[in-house]
Amino acid sequence: MYLDIKVTQWKRVELPESATKEQVIDLLQKGNSDNGFNQLWEAFNGDNNLAIDDIDEGWDKVLDPIDNYDSSTMELFANKYEVPPIWTNKLEYPDEIRLTWTVEDFESKAQEKEDVDLECGDGYSEEFPMLYDRSKFPNALSIMKDRHDCNYGVSWDTVDYLLDEFCKL
Fold first, then answer.
1. Where are the chain's structural domains?
2. Could you tell me if 116 and 128 are in contact, meaning their C-beta atoms sit under 8 angstroms apart?
3. What pTM value is reported for the model?
């Protein structure tokens, strides 16, 4: 069994005979492409079991499918004569998507408008006063959901408007 991996070019990793298809796929699916490969490496390279083409070249970044125009960057084959691959990390596109806005988005926008960065140690003061009632953020989020117009969507401008309209102190 072997795994072809696209970094800046395709590389091949020969897997030991002891590796099972289920075991390899499970390890690869545990993380993104880098983490999945690292899991595989740790599991099978204890005794230098993995044979890799050109180990010194091009292994700095295993590409994610998004970096590869949504095409797979890992393809697992049972042997060199069996096509197609028995597993790939090609992206699957869902039949629907859900976009999420949270109270934290209102907090982030409020801090931006208040010109305060609490992570950098900035605090509220007479010069930079708190402008919004944080207890009203959940209500503003609910209003955003109830009043959204699917023809226009929801954006940061929507959050900005709701902050000023419903959350001002």
1. 2-88, 103-167
2. yes
3. 0.46
